[in-house]
Amino acid sequence: MAAQVGQDNLPTGLDVFSPTTQDDYDRAEDKARQLLRSILPEDTWSELEETGVIQCTGKRGKYIISPYLQTEIRNAASGRCVADACLQLSIPAPTYDRMVAEYLLIRNAEDIYWKTANIFFRGGDESGIAALFLIAFDIALFVNLLQVVTVR
Amino acid sequence: MALKALRMICAGGDKTLAEWDTETVSPHRLAEIEKEFNEKIAQGWFAADISEKRDVLIREFDPSAEILLIPRVQGGRYVTLEPSVMLGLNLS
Q1: What are phi and psi of A133, to 5 degrees?
Q2: Which chain B residues have a beta carbon less than 8 Å from that of A35?
Q3: What is the per-residue pLDDT across A79-108, written as a single tens digit (0 to 9) for each?
Q4: Residue A70 at interface with chain B, using a CB cutoff of 8 Å
Q5: Which helix (H) or strand (E) covers residue A141, if one does?
Q6: Which residues contact A64 (CB under 8 A, 6 or more apart)?
């Protein structure tokens, strides 16, 4: 009830409408989901229902768009995740509407997507260097062990 | 009869700004809708022709298309979930 009273004080334009109750929120999410469904090809929609994400391939890689997580950017050839992308709408809107925007941008204006989204590259090289250090350390320990055994 | 619509994304999902029948709509009404379309584009919104899963971005008003207006986009924050949140634990 309190939420409804609060909403009455807002201007009537839908531009500024923001969901105030769980029902409003659910209705908005459902509407956005239907919009996404009307845009996606049937197989992509089925994929979303089965896996919870949609895959979209562009010139720069394969994108895994999720309603609740950052978009994963994967190397199209190896499938390895190379970066995470964060993009949001400039107005509050249901999460599936953000997916609509991401999907359309990747399909039509991938370069703009890369210029606009915050892209966080995953540091694959650092883990490689760390592994090399560990191997070197193990070899040094092994040589040390051999020396001890040989001396005795 | 071919009904088309100009829709925009907003907080409550999407709303229909205008609807018209391509066979009977008047040039005056189309001009009004086009004006509204152009105002949004000038504000940085982008538009997509979503008729029959066509999903292409457009810059100019097309009266024969089902049009979706999408607000400006911006870079978002990198969010990492705490393990307690991922496990659904309330530790507060």
Answers
A1: -60, -40
A2: 9, 13-14, 68
A3: 999 999 999 999 999 999 999 999 999 999
A4: yes
A5: helix A124-151
A6: A53, A54, A55, A71, A72, A74
For A38: left if phi > 0, alpha if psi spans -120 to 50, otherwise beta; the answer is alpha
> CB of A109 within 8 Å of any CB in chain B?
yes
Q: How many residues does this entry show for chain B? A: 92
Burial of A48 (0-12, 13-18, 19+ CB in 10 A): buried
Q: Which amino acid is at B41?
A: I
Task: Please list every residue in chain B whose beta carbon sits closer than 8 Å to the beta carbon of residue A120.
Answer: 78
Complex ipTM, two decimals?
0.82
What's the whole-model pTM score? 0.75
Number of residues written out for chain A: 152
Rounded to the nearest angstrom, the minimum Cα separation between A17 and chain B is 6
- Whose CA is closest to B70, among B8, B19, B6? B8
Element (H, E) at A39: helix A22-39
